[in-house]
Every structure is written in structure tokens, then in C-alpha cells.
TrEMBL record, chain A:
Upper classification of the organism: Bacteria, Pseudomonadati, Pseudomonadota, Alphaproteobacteria, Hyphomicrobiales
One MF annotation (Gene Ontology) recorded for this entry: oxidoreductase activity
Chain ranges of the Aldehyde oxidase/xanthine dehydrogenase a/b hammerhead domain: 32-138
Name of this protein: Xanthine dehydrogenase
SUPFAM superfamilies per the UniProt record, alphabetical: CO dehydrogenase molybdoprotein N-domain-like (SSF54665), Molybdenum cofactor-binding domain (SSF56003)
Record-linked InterPro entries: Ald_Oxase/Xan_DH_a/b (IPR000674), Ald_Oxase/Xan_DH_a/b_sf (IPR036856), Ald_Oxase/xanthine_DH-like (IPR016208), AldOxase/xan_DH_MoCoBD1 (IPR008274), AldOxase/xan_DH_MoCoBD2 (IPR046867), AldOxase/xan_DH_Mopterin-bd_sf (IPR037165), PaoC-like (IPR049648)
Organism: Mesorhizobium mediterraneum
TM region(s), chain numbering: none
TrEMBL record, chain B:
Record's keyword terms, sorted: FAD, Flavoprotein
GO molecular-function terms, A-Z: FAD binding; oxidoreductase activity
Biological source species: Mesorhizobium mediterraneum
InterPro entries found in the cross-reference section: CO_DH_flav_C (IPR005107), CO_DH_flav_C_dom_sf (IPR036683), Diverse_Substr_Oxidored (IPR051312), FAD-bd_PCMH (IPR016166), FAD-bd_PCMH-like_sf (IPR036318), FAD-bd_PCMH_sub1 (IPR016167), FAD-bd_PCMH_sub2 (IPR016169), Mopterin_DH_FAD-bd (IPR002346)
Pfam families: FAD_binding_5 (PF00941)
UniProt name for this protein: Molybdopterin dehydrogenase
PANTHER family per record: ALDEHYDE OXIDOREDUCTASE FAD-BINDING SUBUNIT PAOB, XANTHINE DEHYDROGENASE SUBUNIT C-RELATED
Superkingdom per UniProt: Bacteria
Domain FAD-binding PCMH-type: 1-222
Gene3D superfamilies assigned: 3.30.465.10, CO dehydrogenase flavoprotein, C-terminal domain, Uridine Diphospho-n-acetylenolpyruvylglucosamine Reductase, domain 2
Keyword Flavoprotein belongs to the record: yes
Amino acid sequence: MRFDTPATTNPIDQLKIVGKPTDRIDGPLKTTGTAPYAYEWHDVVPNQAYGYVVGSAIAKGRIASIDLTKARAAPGVLAIVTAENAGKLGKGDWNTAKLLGGPDIQHYHQAIALVVAETFEQARAAAQLVRVDYIRAQGAFDLASAKDSAIVPDGATPDTAVGDFASAFASAPVELDATYTTPDQGHAMMEPHASIAAWDGDKLTLWTSNQMIAWSTGDMAKTLGIPKENIRLISPFIGGGFGGKLFVRSDAVLAVLGARAARRPVKVALARPFMFNNTTHRPATIQRIRIGATRDGKITAIGHESWSGDLPGGGPENAVQQTRLLYAGANRMTATRLAVLDLPEGNAMRAPGEAPGLMALEIAMDEMAEKLDIDPVEFRILNDTQVDPENPDRRFSQRQLVECLRIGAERFGWKTRGVRTGRVREGRWLIGVGVAAGFRNNLLTTSAARVRLDHRGVVTVETDMTDIGTGSYTIIAQTAAEMMGVPLDKVVVRLGDSIFPVSAGSGGQWGANNSTSGVYAACVKLREAVTQKLGFNSAEALFEDGNVRLGSRSVSLAEAAGEAGLVAEDAIEYGNLAKQYQQSTFAAHFVEVGVDVATREIRVRRMLAVCAAGRILNPKSARSQVIGAMTMGVGAALMEELAVDKRHGFFVNHDLAGYEVPVHADIPHQEVVFLDETDPISSPMKAKGVGELGLCGVGAAIANAVYNASGVRVRDYPVTLDKLLSGLPEI
Amino acid sequence: MRSFTYERASSPAEAAAAASAEGAKFIAGGTNLLDLMKLEIETPTHLIDVNDLALDRIETTPEGGLRIGALVRNTDLAADERVRRDYGLLSRALLAGASGQLRNKATTAGNLLQRTRCPYFYDTNQPCNKRQPGSGCAAIGGFSRQHAVIGASEMCIATHPSDMAVAMRVLDATVETVRPDGTARSIPIAEFHRLPGDTPHVENALIPGELITAVTLPRPVGGTHIYHKVRDRASYAFALVSAGAIVQRDGTGHIALGGVAHKPWRVEAAEAELPRGAKAVAEQLLADAKPTQENAFKLPLVERTLAAVLAEART
Amino acid sequence: MTAAPSGANAQAGTGDMPSAVGEPAMSKVAITVNGEARELDLDTRTTLLDALREHLHLTGTKKGCDHGQCGACTVMVDGQRINSCLTLAVMHEGDTITTIEGLGAPQNLNAMQAAFVKHDGYQCGYCTPGQICSAVAVLDEIRAGIPSHVSGDLTATPQATVAELRERMSGNICRCGAYSNIVEAIAEVAGRPA
Ligand SMILES: Cc1cc2nc3c(=O)[nH]c(=O)nc-3n(C[C@H](O)[C@H](O)[C@H](O)COP(=O)(O)OP(=O)(O)OC[C@H]3O[C@@H](n4cnc5c(N)ncnc54)[C@H](O)[C@@H]3O)c2cc1C
Ligand code: SF4
Ligand code: FES
Ligand code: FES
């Protein structure tokens, strides 16, 4: 189905099932421990052996020699894979560093061997016996020192300019020129990367934990140099990804190579202390923001530059993206620069670009509002734009940022805030509030599905879409139920298998809208198949209560399907509505924090997000997406930092005790409001993404609240108590 | 993790005798030892499980104090009525540590003996004098936000991570042991943990195979009991700085710090300054502090934490 | 009880060249898991977590970190919650273990499991079994009068306030960030408004 004109009324608009807060259909499996994750498929193939990965002890250099004698001789060892014996390997399109390193080493903990043994205990012990001699090479590990060597990266618009930023900024009556930094961050999803690989002749089956089935099937084929038709990837349950599982990673490649070497199925999970340096992370940024405005608060010049680093061949963190679209202003510029760093591979993490970009931009807006002596909510509203500021002919398909801000301010009690910093106190706590805008684009990609109707009237949806906690199972079931006019319990959803039609996959908050639109398209076809079979006029037939009705005729779907059943497959494909209209999602974040008068410990007390993100398909799971993102935002604002050892080039705090993410005690009750919105420009579902929006801006809202509470402006994340200690008044 | 044989000891003397063998180690809750064994930072070849030793009781001593068996779980110790009433500091310190699950397993002895959380100690690719004597110290000049600001050496700047130990230090606890030859001894807590000096791998006064049987507390001294733990994350995190204190009505008291040194940091002379306030106490406590650039903030933080403690004691 | 003698000849300490890993020492252990008596012959190195997941194929208990840092492996041993990754299976001779599978089944959810579904107290589901086991045990701990870090008065009987729940649940990390909903689910089971 081609989608190139705005959606009109369609069966989804009935909203009998779609749009209703719905318990997850996979909930009973998840809450009873019966949902199978990647490492848990004991029954699918017998005789599984265990692989344990050995990682490089240096960040850059070469392996001079590798001695496997002791490891080979260790009890239970079946095979050892290294670059020397693995045969020729390609590199996946989505990978920067090689997943099996050697002799060249590209980063710390790059995988250099897999030890396969009868048991996990044996594999782990034998892995410690692999002896490696390295020749170290000099590397670059510090973004601040590499900044001056950064270059213009290849690819999408590293530089943009409209009007004359330099002179507009220079002549602006009120201006801000500030530099912000965000640190490297880890996805730290709770399920470690894990895979089970089994070969049957030249056919490979891989049970893994992966967000993007088709990308990863393709990349695995490329890595191995085999046709992708020979690979089956299965990933129906994923214990979190956040971008860290968009790609094939070392667990998968090594399980596959290990299985080949050991001639047995092999399972591999990455050990937690190994994950942070072995896999990808969100790269650190240095961001310079300049804003010039008139005295009454109209932005006349806005400039945003960002520096990040990555391995040679890698890409930048696109932290300036939102600044091109979020606020009005005639004169604008953005610039993205990329330095070479020999740290582990930087790559996408939840809301790449916008998450760190808004952490900086939305502090800058707060600072600017203060300089102007304008309420920060009003300052944002004053600079709203309904068109793409770089191209005023392009309107936003929907843009309710102002409404988000106003409704949020009202609900949150923004008016009662203390404008002066450091003045509101409750016992040992200094109280402050902060606001920030949230922004994330709506991305459209082709997505296909197959829908079957059987003789019991059960609708089965098959698509390689994944559910990484996003609620895909449930919204897809809701979509199919609404389309076919059946109750939810008559729908079966099967996801995450490369034998199913290729979907959008889970990433970039594009999953929900695109995958359900693909299911919509397939259901439209299935409806046609049903009506055609019954000889109904398809335009007038009603699908209701498990029946198809036309006038006084009514046939149950079960009967319509008959013994043979009916099947339909289709994809949603987008025309150029996305070119004609800018499609984005918006939020306003409001946060209240307490800062301990004495120790400067920071605790979040209240959080509210108001979101405008198109139709909300399942308010229950959508809310969870938003609160989950807000929680991640608390981590980003207040504690998360992969600490770089700038001498040896690795992330030092590489476990979950060292890399602190929020725990229960850090998170108060969180409130989320979704504005009533449908976006017919986006898709037949009239939905947009929401899974990343909740993260966009929240970090800055917290930082602004800390400033409001304490009077100390921190521009280097995370905002930790030590940064609030200097230059403080006595207690 | 290397292979090891396993036995369950049935008496303290038998356990101590067995533990004097090369490569043998006790295991109690296992929450620290197994963590380190998985990374081959600890590599025992024989484990002696001491959980059957009936050292899990808390008894009142003839002097009116408490005798806490080495195997009393952190949860049980924190929840004991006598501890809550008379040694609130100890309850508070325990409850500020780790998580509910870990406290259910962690034992009194194991907690005292837990090893540092220095991330370089935990990474066997890195030089670490504590893990591998003579290899160097990667933390010096590296990421040292968590590390010691006082009492450290050129060989090691690690901290002792225990919260409970800080309380024990304030409470003047005594560690009771049995040595492999069967003889018992008592070690005052002040002499139990060591500073790193030239031998950071030697962390306490125990000799190989020496088994902790109990920790005893003197009779209660009254006063207000406070344990103030400062951390970025609200729970399930080690202290950046912590302060355990008993403050009396007249402003006198006892105080020790966690998160600043290789052992709970107490300077009796500094306690004389208590009535003069946090600044005076902090100055004495940290007189010879040598922080790194990354942890220099702990000095003002200690003073501020002490101020919070004294303020709380007044209310 | 002594495990079968092994050829273990690794030396203590961390020399440059670890000596060869010996043959695994095997040991028998009898435990009761979810009401069923189980007997296992295990490498002594096997954690309770791996015994459950890899030997008994009870994969409801999750491995998130294997180092006591996440709580995904939480199970109840003789009614108390622990991290099953930091305990050896052989140390549990005679113990009674309850895992998530022992609390309820998809067609027969227990109250806590049902409350998690109702309040959407999860997303990816990986931390969920640990959260649920922990939540059940937390309510027991409160009933047993065990204080917490946030209990105002140490000598008073603790209540199941949301502040108490949050502190006590902090050993269970949820990277999906379902905390707000999880606490609502537990509060409902505890019979209090969140
Ligand atoms: C993620 C995480 C967070 C934590 N957070 C904190 C925290 O915030 N604050 C805090 O204080 N602690 C914290 N801990 C540490 C925890 O308190 C310790 O792991 C625990 O107290 C150790 O006790 P155990 O009985 O399990 O010791 P084991 O692991 O059994 O033993 C530790 C050591 O003591 C020896 N040993 C045990 N018993 C005896 C005995 N009777 N005689 C002689 N030697 C003995 C063992 O041989 C071993 O060397 C944390 C741990 C983890 C994993
Ligand atoms: S501080 Fe101590 S424990 Fe840490 S690396 Fe240095 S020697 Fe090792
Ligand atoms: S797996 Fe046991 S605490 Fe993480
Ligand atoms: S539900 Fe994904 S980690 Fe908690």
C-alpha cells in the first residue's frame, strides 16, 4: 500500500480497540518468566555448548602472538575461535569496528577469541588461559584534546546555514555563547547481548536478541560471506535494546563461528563487565550554542556546533539536529564535527542526536530566558514556529509544542515557582523546578506484514517487527483486531523472525507507527480477500464482532475463511509527504528537584511530561515508554557517565555497580499527559513515535531545576553533587 | 572462575585448621568472594563453607554489650531489637549498604572483609598492587573519583567500601577470632583494618586461615546515633563519603568516616573538636589529606556532611 | 561434606601465568525448587542461578549482570530473597527455593504478577521476574518488621509506604524505567494507594 496522500477516515478511526489503554498481551508470559529470551532456548536444538568471549586488554595496537595451548588443554574445551582460524570475515554495513579483532586491535575489550566448552564454567575458566602478547600503539582517547583535529564528517548535512548568523548574532542586543558537554553513556539494557547459533549444513539458525531482524540478517550474511537466505534469525523477546541491539554484535558472530568450529550449537552471552567496552555506546559531545535575541525575547540568531569522536570510519553524534527545527529565528547555523578517537565504537543510543542535543540546547534556552528576564515557558512559546525555519514553505504536519508547554505549566503549578534561585527550602532540601521542550522527528520506513485468517476466526499476524519492551505485540494485535473486527483475544501476533515479512524494526521511535501501518496495509488486503470471496462490495462491508456484514447479510469470519483459511501480505510504503511536511513529535518536560543544603545530593521529586505525538495507539504502554525514557533522562542528567581512562583508552566503570543508572529510590511518581492528536500526514494509523520523545529534553529540565534550586549552573553532564560544591555559600 | 573443592566445616576450630592449607578460603555469604572469583581476582582452590558453624546468634555479653556471631546476616543484625534500640548507628549503616537481597546473604565477618571497589582492582587487564603486588597502581593518575583522600600511599589509593565497618569503628567493636592452631584472640577494630602502605594486598590483621567468630560491642553509650551516607544514586550505591556518629547531649561524641580511606577513618583527637563544629572536626580529621584532582571534592563534602550530622544531632 | 577430590592445581594469588585449570570438582546437591525435590550433580563452580537456568531449565530467573549489581536473578531461598548469581548451588543443600515459575503461571497469575500486568510494571520484561520475587519478599519483610534505610524511627514498626517500597526495591534495576508503575503495582498488592 502506497501512502502518499493524507489519511482519510478508515477503520482504525472506530477506536474500539486502538487507542484504548490495553494490558500487554505478552504480560502473562513476562510476569511468569515464560517468555523466552535469547539465551534461554534449551529445547530448540540439543547438545548446546557454551562460548565465552575473550577481549583485548589494550585499546589500540596489534596482537604479537596468541597462545592457546593452555586454554585448549583445559577440561571441556571443544574449540577456540580467533581471527587466525576463523577464515575470512566481512564486516557488516552497520558495524564500524570488527566484531572479531586481531591481529589489529581497534578498541579495548574488542573480542579476540571465543572459547567453546561443554559447560559455562569450563568455558569461562579456559577463556582466562588464553595468553596474548600485544604491541601497544598510541591512541587518541580524549575528545577535548582531539577536538581541534575534528573534521567535517561524510553524509547528511554536517553544516547548515540560513541568513547571516554571524552578523545577526554580533548585533543581537541579548546574547548567549556557552559550551556544554555530555559524556559517553551506555545502553545498559538488562538483558546482556546473547545468541544461540546452530548450523544445519550450510543453513544457520540464530536465536538472538536483536532490534532489527532484516538489517542483522543481512549483516550476518555479509560478515560470513554466505547468502542471507541461508540465515534464519529469531528474536521474539528482547530484554531491552535502546539502540544497543540494532546491529549484529560479537555475541552473535562468535556464537556462529563457535558453532562452526565445535560442530555443535553454541550459546554465547556477553559478560556484563565486558559489555560496556565491547559493544557500542552513545558518544560524548562538546556543544557550543550561541543564541542572539531582541530585548523582548525574539530569537534573531541561533547557532549550534557539536563535536564528537568515533573510531576511523565511524560517524558523529548528530546533536545539532533539533536546533534546525525547534525554534524560530531568521539567522541560523549548525555544524557537526567528528574527531577520531580510539575508544569503543560510538553508535546509536535511544534518541541519538536529540537526547544529548537537547540536554545542551534546553539549558541554553533557560540561560537565555534568564538573561532576558522572561519566564522560560514563555520564552519558548515566543519563539515557536509552525514551519521549518530553514524552509518556511514546509509546514509541520502537526506541532503542538505551545499547547504542551501551556498545559504542562498549568498542571505542574509552574506559576508558583520561585524565580530566584536557591530560595525555596523545605527542611534539608532546596527546591527548584525546571522546564524543557522535547522534540524528536517522526521517521517513516517501509514495513510489511502477513495476516492470516483461519477457520476458527483467529487472525494471526506475522512480521519481523520486534518488541523490545515497546509494546509492539499489543499495538499490532490492537491494529489487527480493529481492522478485522475481532476481539483482541482472537488475534495472535508472531514477531521477530526473519521468515516473516520485513518490518520497520525497532529503533528511532519509528517502530510503532510504521509496523502497525504495515499491519494495517496487510489487513486491508485481507479484508478485500474476505469480501471478494463472499462476493461483497468491499467498500461497504462492515467487519464487526467477528463477522462481515453487508446490509442484512452477515457471515462469520471463521466461515468466510473456511478450512483453507485466507492469507494476505502487504507493506506500507511512503510517498513524499515527509518531504512536503516536517513530521515531528513534541513534549514539554517539567521537573522538581531537591538539592541537599549540606551535601548537595540531588533527588528528583516530581516529573511531568506532556506529549503531542499523533494518535496514541495504546495509552498504557505508550505512557510506559515515556516514563521509562524520563527515567533514563534522570540517569543522563544526574549520574550516567562512562568514565574514560585517557591514558589507556577505555571506559573504567564498566559494570553496573560502577556505571550507575537510576534505581527505584531515584524515581518519584511520574505523570504523563498525551494531547489529543491525530496526524493524517504521518500514516493511516495517524500515529507517530513516542518511545524516544520522553527522553528528549528531560535531562535539561532536571539541570534547569537544579539551577533553580541551588543557583549553580552546571554545563557539564552529569550534574553531580561535586559540581555543586564549589563556590557555594556556607551552610 | 578456577576449579575448587568444597567442604562444609562443622566447627570453628576445624574450619580454621582446614583454611590454613594453601589456596583455601572461607566462604560465608559469598557476595564478595564469588563476585571476585568470577573475575579470577580471587582464585581459591578449596572453599570452606562456614555457614554451618552456628555463629549466627546475637547474644548479650556479661558486660552489657552484644556479641554478634560472625555469620549473623546484615539484615538480621540491622533488624535486631537491641541493635535498633542501643546501637542505632549500626542498624543505619547496614541498611544504607548494598540491597535487600545482598543484606540477606552478607554476613558480619564477610562485610568487614569485603574488598575494595576500585574499578582497576576489578579489571585484571590493569596494573594493581593490591591484586598483583608490584604491578603498579592504575588508579593513580586515572579515574579516581571514588578513591581515598587520606591515609593512602604511592602504592594504592583504594578505599574500604563497608558501611558497617564505619559504625563498628565508632562503636569500638572488637573482632574475635580463632587461629588455625586453635587459639582465640580479640582484635580491636581500630587495629583490624590496615592502611595500604607498601603492602596494599594485606588489608587486615588476620593471619592465613584465621576465622572470625564474632564481633563484640561494648555496652551502649546512649547519645544520638547517626549514619549519613552521601552518594549520587539514592540507593544501592557505595558511599562517596559517609559519616557515622554518636553525639551526646553535651555536644561531645564519636565520629568516623567512610569513603575516604583504606579503612574506616577515625581520629580520636578530632572528636575533641566536636563541640566546636564541623569545620574544626573536619580540619583535624583530614589534616594530612592528599586528594587527587578528581576526588578533591570529598574534602568540602566531608565538612558539609559533618555539618549535616551535627545539625541532625541537635534536632 | 567434601566434594570429590579434583585435579585442581591452580595456585592462589594472581601470578602472571595462571596454571592450568583443573578438572572440575563435582558435587551433589539436593534442593527443593518450587515444591519439587531436585537432585543435581554439579561442578562446584555452578551458581544457584546457573543451576536453575542451565541445569533445571528454569529460565524465568534472569541473569543481568552475574555480579550482584542488578537484581534480575532474585529468588527466594527459605522465604528470603537473595541474588542467586552470588551464591553457589552446592551451598544450598536441603534448601527450599522459590522462583518466578513457582509463584504463578500464565493462566494462573498470582496477585503480584497480575498487578504488574494491570499497572504495566514492566516493558522488556527482563528484570520483571526479579522485580516480582523481590516485591513479594519485600512485603514479607515489612510484615516481619524489618526496618529500611528510609524508616524514620528505627524502633517503630515499618509501613508499606511508597518511600519504603522504593528504597527496598532498589536492588532491582529496571533499565526500561518502569519504576513508577512497579511501585503502583506493589502498593496495590500491599493494600495501599500509591
Ligand atoms: C552490588 C553490590 C553493592 C554493594 N553495596 C554495598 C554498600 O553500599 N555498602 C557495603 O558496606 N557493602 C556493600 N556491598 C558489599 C557487601 O556488603 C559484601 O559483599 C558483604 O558484606 C560480604 O559478606 P559475605 O558474607 O557475603 O562475604 P563473603 O563473600 O562470603 O566473604 C568475603 C571475604 O570474607 C572472608 N570470610 C567470610 N567469613 C569469614 C569468617 N568468618 N572469618 C574469616 N574470613 C571470612 C571470605 O573468605 C572472603 O574473603 C555490596 C556488594 C555488591 C555486590
Ligand atoms: S588504588 Fe589500590 S586497588 Fe586500585 S588500582 Fe591502585 S593498587 Fe589497585
Ligand atoms: S544477575 Fe544477579 S544481581 Fe544481576
Ligand atoms: S522491564 Fe526492561 S529492564 Fe525492567
